[in-house]
């Protein structure tokens, strides 16, 4: 467990991590661990799927990578532009994603927690819909 005074990443800077970082850095989309694994393989490197999952999970815990859980149970990963707390607006069809800040949601979540005596409240929120392009195409 890392302390606030000396935050240390949970992952060493191995070639596997560097290869996974390169894939995530090149993509603006959320990717599955399988897609990351395939992309690393296509770059000519061999890494196990288990290693990809471990590196991605450690990066989620380090706050470097965001995670998106889809309705079908699939988990996707992406390096986000925003470094602070934020939410995502996700197209159900093409998975286009917008990062959004929602101060009223933050206030509401804190209020609900306080109402029931909870402290140190956190939450996740993903909003799903159709992006303008998919809505126009009739998806």
Automatic annotation (TrEMBL):
It is found in: Cytoplasm. The keyword Transcription regulation applies. Binds 1 zinc ion per subunit. SUPFAM superfamilies: Winged helix' DNA-binding domain. Keywords: Cytoplasm, DNA-binding, Iron, Metal-binding, Repressor, Transcription, Transcription regulation, Zinc. The keyword Iron applies. Zn(2+) binds at residues 91, 94, 131, 134. GO terms for cellular component: cytosol. InterPro entries: FUR, Fur_C, WH-like_DNA-bd_sf, WH_DNA-bd_sf. Its cofactor is Zn(2+); Mn(2+); Fe(2+). Fe cation binds at residues 85, 106, 123. GO terms for biological process: negative regulation of DNA-templated transcription; regulation of secondary metabolite biosynthetic process. Its main location: cytoplasm. Pfam families: FUR. One of its GO terms (molecular function) is zinc ion binding. Belongs to the Fur family. Homodimer. This is Transcriptional repressor. It comes from Enteractinococcus helveticum.
